[in-house]
Amino acid sequence: MNFKGELVRAEREKAGLTQKELAEKANYSRAMISKIESGRKKAKKHDLILIAQALNSMYLMIAARGTTTLPIVFDQINDDFYVAANKFLQECQEAIEAVEDVLCLAHNVETIEDCSDEQKESIMYALTQVCDVNHACDVVDCAAGNMGFDIEKRNRKNLEKYRQRNYLSYGARPDLEAAT
Q: How much of the chain is in helix, strand and coil states, percent to nearest 5?
């Protein structure tokens, strides 16, 4: 299965671009885009990031990096599990409040063009808070890993749970296929 190539094609088509147009935006040849989409060339992480940026595709960014956020290592944070878990709860509470505020403002919004300046500011603030939660999750994982918990085992259990709930198809995480 060529999950990443198929995703590149789907995201390119969603953006309304030809292979040639995407190649120009991502600074690749049309032949390279064709090979990636068809699976004749395995897309490397760097390739996917550049293509994701050219398409402004968060799905491709997740396929490339595993997240839409920047990979950050918080080397100045206390990685004690109790401290990290409490910080996570604080970040979650702030994010929930920000998202609840956005839901009141943005119930009829489908694109950024539909947003007033106030809505844009509110949504960006909520996105910032959600990003903080994402990073707080990483800190909790590091702290739990330092305690000896098997985070990869947790990841495999979650992957299977997501499949059972039909959140994703087989092939979406080929790096974990053999482990499940």
A: 70, 0, 30
C-beta of residue 82 within 8 angstroms of C-beta of residue 146 = no
**For 39, left (φ over 0), alpha (ψ -120 to 50), or beta?**
left
Residue 163 parent element (H or E): helix 151-164
Q: What is the pLDDT of residues 29-88, one digit of tens each?
A: 999 999 999 999 998 999 999 999 999 999 899 888 888 888 777 777 777 899 999 999
Question: What span, in angstroms and rounded, lies between the C-alpha atoms of 33 and 51?
Answer: 9
Other C-beta atoms closer than 10 Å to the C-beta of 54 total 22
Confidence (pTM): 0.73
E strand or H helix at 144: helix 117-147
How many other C-beta atoms can be found within 10 angstroms of the C-beta atom of residue 129? 20
CATH architecture of 3-65: Orthogonal Bundle (1.10)
